[in-house]
Design brief:
Distance between the termini: 24 Å
Helix content: 25-40%
Strand content: 15-25%
Radius of gyration: 15 Å
Number of strands: 3
Number of helices: 3
């Protein structure tokens, strides 16, 4: 794989494979968790681009599409979690906080759209 985008285009060009059957490898240069998080966000975005015409509005992505993307992520051992909640009365989105985290499971990316807050996170899929 040359780039995460190329990996995603290859991955999403066919039906999802069983969990843990696709190999994802890249050089992290010592900053593995935050770089992995960024790569996973890129793969998520590229995957949605194969299903929807950009610009993509997360509020228009169907539950079925999210489920399908989850299967793709499981194929390389990652559990994709997308949570949709009502926007709280006071909202401060700080999408750069993952840079100060060291555990993939604690990193989040949030988007506020159409009255909802969407939170994307990843964790390693157990075998």
């Amino acid at each position: 794989m040359s780039t995460p985008q190329e990996f995603a285009r290859t991955l999403f060009s066919s039906e999802p494979r069983p969990p843990h059957t696709v190999h994802l490898e890249f050089d992290t240069n010592g900053d593995s968790a935050s770089l992995l998080f960024e790569v996973l966000l890129l793969i998520f975005t590229e995957g949605l681009k194969t299903m929807y015409t950009p610009p993509i509005h997360i509020s228009q992505v169907t539950d079925a599409s999210i489920q399908k993307v989850m299967h793709y992520f499981a194929s390389f051992g990652i559990e994709l979690l997308v949570e949709k909640t009502d926007i709280p009365p006071v909202l401060h989105i700080k999408n750069d906080q993952y840079l100060r985290q060291h555990d993939l499971q604690t990193m989040t990316f949030q988007v506020s759209e159409s009255g909802f807050l969407y939170t994307v996170r990843f964790r390693y899929l157990s075998r």
